[in-house]
Amino acid sequence: MVEQQRSATLDAVFHALSDSTRRAMLGKLAEGECSVSALAAPFSMSLAGASKHVKVLEAAGLVRRRVAGRIHYCRLDAARLAEAEAWLRHYERFWNTRLDALESLLRAEDEKKKEG
């Protein structure tokens, strides 16, 4: 059950990160809190469109929203990004091990060629 929940969380994070607009929004939020209209400004999209992107980011747990009057402010919540990074780190270790083995093999072949 815990693994299914973790998988659903990662699925939501990677889904949110799959869109370049949302990645750009996260980049802006890494600089500090800003309004949804400020997040929409660099793109040719409506406030409703920007809000849909923010909802995806919120559902993934990447963004928190607060409302002050009619203005919605967003801030980055990086905890879910850390979980995704930990998942990726596992595969980084896997590939580093494989590439190190390949490098050793290629160096051994080069040494044989130099000797022979």
What does this structure look like?
With 116 residues, the chain is α+β, with helices and mostly antiparallel strands. The chain has one domain: Arc Repressor Mutant, subunit A, CATH 1.10.10. It contains 5 helices and 3 strands, in the order ααβααββα. It has helices at residues 2-17, 20-29, 36-40, 47-59, 79-115; strands spanning 34-35, 63-68, 71-76. Strands 1-3-2 form a 3-stranded antiparallel β-sheet. Strand 2 (63-68) and strand 3 form a beta hairpin. Helix 1 packs antiparallel against helix 4 (47-59) and helix 1 crosses helix 5. The longest helix has 37 residues, at 79-115. It is elongated, with a radius of gyration of 21 Å. The relative contact order is 0.13.
Helical content class? 55-70%
Distance between the ends: 59 Å
User: From the alpha-carbon coordinates, what is the Rg to the nearest angstrom?
Assistant: 21 Å
Provide the number of structural domains.
1
Classify the secondary structure makeup into a structural class: alpha+beta
CATH superfamily: Winged helix-like DNA-binding domain superfamily/Winged helix DNA-binding domain
What is the approximate shape?
A: elongated
The strand line-up of the biggest sheet is 1-3-2
CATH level 1 class label: Mainly Alpha
* Largest sheet features: 3 strands, antiparallel
* Oligomeric state of shown chains: single chain
Mean pLDDT: 90
Order of helices and strands: HHEHHEEH
Q: Can you tell me the CATH topology? A: Arc Repressor Mutant, subunit A
